[in-house]
Amino acid sequence: MAWELSAQRPIWSQLVEQIQLRIVTGRYPAGSRLPSVRELAADASVNPNTMQRALSQLEADGLVCSQRTSGRFVTEQEETIMELKKTLAKNLVRDFLTRIEALGYTAKEAAQLLEAEDAAQFRTKEDA
Amino acid sequence: MAWELSAQRPIWSQLVEQIQLRIVTGRYPAGSRLPSVRELAADASVNPNTMQRALSQLEADGLVCSQRTSGRFVTEQEETIMELKKTLAKNLVRDFLTRIEALGYTAKEAAQLLEAEDAAQFRTKEDA
DNA sequence: ATCATTGTATTAAGCTCTTAGTACAACAGT
DNA sequence: ACTGTTGTACTAAGAGCTTAATACAATGAT
């Protein structure tokens, strides 16, 4: 999955989310070394300062730690990562429920919409 | 539902979404007169210019129309409103599916998470 | 006719975000 | 010892968002 950045929100914030995603999905495994700030920035077509800001945030959250001159590493505590994954999922679900109910749908109807959309995506993939 | 504004995204954009919500849920019925720009701005604790920008966007989308000096009115075409509701719901579902799958969950697991969270919310409401 | 209210427009200031460019100390590899 | 890479820090500029403060023409109510 490449970097997907929108101008509608702070880029550094989107970078935080997408690096989190790469960590919880194992693309950046626990304890592994991250690409350098400059490398990540170039890959995302973003200024190094912006990437640095995102990484500082991740470091403040305890998800990565920097070794000053040898690079930056993902935390070795796999439990922290699993917990993050659960939190992200729970927030996603909670936000979705809040929004869909604000629109006037019940949770049951939301589940039906979800099934319908999933089936539609499945068909699209099959056709491809 | 009061105005819920975050500093993380452009306020005018959030105002657009929340006014859309008030329209599709019938709080601002089709054909009805909206509060004045200044009134809405004061209610949302926002600068009139910011509210004006949101309303201009809604007008460009054909959801409201202004009568220059007598006020602004919700479109009378209820079909437009119903269509917006469906579109908003579909986008919500699609985005949720995309994000939850990016986290590593299948659509089925997502549905289970949804049920679990809904049950949790139900319990919370019962306790209150 | 008068006056308040309507949408709309304009200018200025302050803020955050982003980019660009530069710089420095600490370490690894040679 | 030297060189390149590392994270980190700083300044400057430009863009967008928000607020503040006005201003104006058109209309409705009185």
Q: What tags apply to this protein structure?
A:
homodimer, 128 residues, mainly alpha, Arc Repressor Mutant, subunit A, 2 domains, two-stranded antiparallel sheet, 5 helices, elongated, DNA-binding
Kindly summarize this structure in a few lines.
Two copies of one chain form a homodimer. The first copy, chain A, is mainly alpha-helical and 128 residues long.
Q: Care to describe what's here?
A:
2 copies of one chain form a homodimer. Chain A has helices at 11-24, 37-43, 48-60, 78-102, 107-127, and strands spanning 64-66, 72-74. Chain A has 128 residues and is mainly α. The first copy, chain A, folds into 2 domains: 11-76, Arc Repressor Mutant, subunit A (Orthogonal Bundle), CATH 1.10.10.10; 79-127. Chain A has a two-stranded antiparallel ribbon with strand order 1-2. In chain A, helix 1 (11-24) crosses helix 3. Chains A and B meet through helix 1, helix 4 and helix 5 of A and helix 1, helix 4 and helix 5 of B. Chain A binds a DNA duplex (30 and 30 nucleotides) through residues 7, 10-12, 36-38, 46-50, 52-53, 55-56, 66-72.
